Amino acid sequence: MSTADEHSVVPATALVPVPPEEQGTAAPSDDEARWRDAFRRATSSSWAVSIGAVILAVLAGSVMIAVTDPEVQKAAGYFFSRPSDMISAIGQAVGGAYAALFRGAVYDYRADDFATGIRPFMQSLTYATPLILAGLGVALGFRAGLFNIGGQGQMLASAAAAGWVGFAFDLPAGIHLLVAVVAGAVAGALWAGIAGALKAYTGAHEVIVTIMLNYVAFYLLSYLLATPGLLQAPGSANPKTPPMKDTALYPKLFGDKYALHAGFLVALGAVVVIWWLLSRSRMGFTFRMVGENPYAARVAGVDVRRKTVEAMLASGALIGLAGGTQVLGLITTGFGSDIDAGIGFDAITVALLGGSQPVGVLGAGILFGGFKAGGSTMQASQGIPIEIVLVVQSLIVLFIAAPPLVRAIFRLPQPGTRPTKAAKSAKDSKPAPSEKKGADA
Amino acid sequence: MTALAPTVPVTPEPGVHRHVVTVSRKLAITLGVVTALSALLYLLAPREGDTSFRLATGTDAVEIGDLKVPGMATAWVCVAVMAVLTVYAAVRTWTNRRTGLWVPILFAFAFLVAFLSWAGAGSDSDIPVSRLIAGSVLLSVPIVFGALGGVIGERAGVVNIAIEGQLLAGAFTAAFVGTLTGSPWAGLIAAVLSGVLVALVLGVFAIKYRVNQVIVGVVLNVLVIGLTSFLYSTVMVPDAETFNQTERFGSLAIPLLSKIPILGQALFNQPVVVYMMYVAVPAVWFALMRTRWGLRVRAVGEHPTAADTVGIKVERTRYRALVVAGAITGIGGGFYTVVSVSSFGKEMTAGAGFIALAAVIFGKWDPVRAALAALLFGFASNLEGTLSIVGAPVPSQFMLMLPYVVTILAVAGLVGRSRPPAASGEPYVKG
Asked: HSE-up of B123 (CA within 13 Å, CB side)?
């Protein structure tokens, strides 16, 4: 964030921070100043804030785990006679929880061999796959100034389309998968496109429309699932589809021992494509123009309405790919109307945590995938409800959205306060003028 | 993009939105489309037989018998009324005059009567009108309170996506405190406080740290869902009797008023929270439109710089407005556990906060209109249950879908002149 700001304010030469080498010549005071400068840059970067936010959220989660743990409550009853009991109970509750989280998300150190021990990590990547794809979709929307809260609806629409192709058609392997994936992406794109078109041509706000479309998609899918002859499995009364045909499934990447499927490669490919689109292509540039300032974009000759629809279609297509990986990779034995598994909303937090940058989304998606995999293990082995993950995730995003708060808590330097000579002499008396701006970053 | 309002991004001049004609034409068009669709439905799927509306409730001062009408004929008469209203709206638009609020209200009424007559035609069961209205009022209570809170917040310039979170937090604390104290009043007060708490968190991030308000709202919803579900599983479920079994408010019949035929039982034999709703709607309208506080709130939401120039403390006014809004929304949250059912359940608000948000926009940021919109949504949700009694030919999923489709239509055009508070969603940076 801070580095981007530094580039963007280039015209205002007076505000550009003094580069380290110039500063070195101006103040010949050696390595120490340079180290301090490097440290300052590191701590005032957005990475420091992200790490701080994660630490704060995990601390808050620990407090919740400790407070609701029955052993801790019991020990708290006689805290003043034996405080060590309570401290050890807290340690056991919190430590056990995070150990379980680690076992479920990264590496099961209790396993006999590496091949089994690494399974949780593969599980995390599997859970991360739709999160990355959907997160990219939401991030793309953000960059074009659109708030796509309709991930749930787009996931459901795409799951219905991809699933229908997956179980109702007989096609050769490979082609079948391709057709199903494309059907999912198109369905997601169209569902999002409704919101995009309404926004562009009637001015209906996309936040409201996408929220409403979530419910419409949910009930529509429920109807399709409950009606024989549509999506419902023949001969069944459950609102559930038949299983997918084998030809339509994403192949497993490392054999049947691991859940990880080729959808993860699609997600990685999408990260590269969206990175290219946003930072190297003409289309991505116009998206960003519209996102930054639609009025200026219009003056510059961009068809803002069309770009709005296009951005929404692209966003929906990515979320549609996520819906496809759900039914063609993860839950292949038939699905119900809960197939979105909350990914549509998680994607928003993934996109926010990733700073709407494709690589950031990749990292955030893997982190949240790990939380999801580890959370289930935590629930199973420690009896801690998986909703704790929601709390930690939302706190992370909340803290990241307010960098000044995190910086204040950890006493990190605010960006823009520079240890130049003038600032050094005056730093106690007056904050730097750009400090206020930090809030918008 | 932060303003939660149907703004056309390409319009270079904000004044264009205010032009009555442009948007009013949408009203006529939308009414026309709905009329045509209804006519098409009744044409393609005619139903035989009579429809009977049960009007009596057994305790009315004057008992009215059942009203038996030929279903299809009634439907067509209503369609004719709808067509007339559409023409009227079109003529008003043509002559550059505003269409009154009564037109869409009457239109909605005709639409519903037509639909009920069609759906109930030939059915053995009556359509219980009084129960339909009573159920609608009850179902719309949290939506109305949420919408009132949303209106106040947006009028002060703070978009509140976290209405859902406030409702859920209110429902949780009301159940928790209500059970611990054994008093629904204590539960309701706790709900108010938790609504305020969520509002304050929103305020700190949106006003102090100037985080995008939509983002804070979305994240707060997730946070509240996570917190309440976590605490529900760890605290309430293991010992539901001590923590999640609250007393409820009973129905309270108002003398005389509750004897009015048809409407009496439905409107005036309700739990006390419903009466609070009757009071809250005009009270919020009065406070916003006729008091100094309201003028300041609106000034801060429309043009914070101007308000600041004349000495109004922008941030403090916004905080205060948010606190009031949070308190009102909190009452709506309490409704779930101290009025509706006596125990909390995971994510029990089920999107009512988002519906309230839609009602805010549907109601054009006006408390009374927003409350009417909320009533409409409550009615649509309640209709599904009633229609399943009479064996309606519409799958229940489509009935449940209706409020959301209506909202989409509404934000896309039905709302008529629709302009959000100018500074809604904009953090104020004192310059």
From this structure: 24
